[in-house]
Description:
Two copies of one chain form a homodimer. The first copy, chain A, is mainly α. Chain A has a single domain (about 20-135), classed as Winged helix-like DNA-binding domain superfamily/Winged helix DNA-binding domain (Arc Repressor Mutant, subunit A, Orthogonal Bundle). Helix content of chain A is about 65%, strand content about 5%. Chain A has seven helices and three strands. The first copy, chain A, has a three-stranded antiparallel sheet. The relative contact order of chain A is 0.10. Chains A and B meet through helix 1, helix 5, helix 6 and helix 7 of A and helix 1, helix 5, helix 6 and helix 7 of B.
Amino acid sequence: MVDSQGGQGGQALLFLTDDQLRKGIEAMFFAYRGFTADPDRILEGMAYGRAHHRAIHFINRSPGTTVNNLLSILGVTKQSLNRVLRSLIEDGLVESRVGKKDKRERHLFLTEKGALLERELSDAQRERMRAAYRAAGPDAVAGFRQVLEAMMDEDMRRHYATLKDRQV
Amino acid sequence: MVDSQGGQGGQALLFLTDDQLRKGIEAMFFAYRGFTADPDRILEGMAYGRAHHRAIHFINRSPGTTVNNLLSILGVTKQSLNRVLRSLIEDGLVESRVGKKDKRERHLFLTEKGALLERELSDAQRERMRAAYRAAGPDAVAGFRQVLEAMMDEDMRRHYATLKDRQV
DNA sequence: CTTGGAATGTCAACAAGGCTGACTTATCCT
DNA sequence: AGGATAAGTCAGCCTTGTTGACATTCCAAG
């Protein structure tokens, strides 16, 4: 397991050495810090955190989504999500409407105030992404997305795919 | 800010649209979950968590590093790191040696037992990385790394660069 | 040489945000 | 009528982040 080049690969498989893989792992670690840094800065001092950001993001992406669906996207327990959702609803950033067809369900929407914060957060996060994309160029970006998609668990890939083509 | 193509870019800058950027953001979110899933599974029930994994990883990468240096790599407060370090030392996974030159400093090393756990964790994490790399191919991997590097904060990029060429 | 400031590391206490388990309420569907 | 499902709640725990106070050690200016 120390070296995955085996005997048959040679030069063509050099990108699969333990050393290359380790560099990728460290790149993920350091990059993710940058990825979350800007929204974290905005949220700090607002009594909100990363958990609130995630909820706001995905409610914005799928207006009218149910609590259960959000749960499965975020991969947390309902008690965890509920704590976050409750504060967002109390503060008037999120609205919860009883389902028309199935009255057990609650459908979640951002209020105007919620959409405003969403905008602020995603603007900041997109700005960093834009700079990185621009610096790396379109081919690199395609590769970036390919590797990330291959790294996801099956369930997450499904959610990702369901979301990603919402707007053509 | 809704659309960054401006007037002058046209087709060539289509990869910088808000929609493309948002897909990248969601890909980072879902992929990072997969990235940490395997080590998390191993650690759960061991009284250790992701913080312990990070400490073990970077001590392994820079044997003899000081607490301060580790602090700056991990980007947490020294009190946070200290708690983690204390339990690792108590459990005999990490050894802390008083500095020869400067006795205020502690130099950190993995014990055999610590190296064993490091191996188990990094094997699991590398396995997922290897599968993703193999599925995406060498060109995609190059792009992946380029975008991640461009996404890092300056300080993190420095740490990343310092670490990454340790072994040629 | 001494003394005060800077640097390194430790301890205590608190908050955010995960988790489990047990339970209620309302609704749906067979 | 009765079991299954969706959502919400309460209590309590753990990990991992935070700040503040403190001990030790080093070094440089007087």
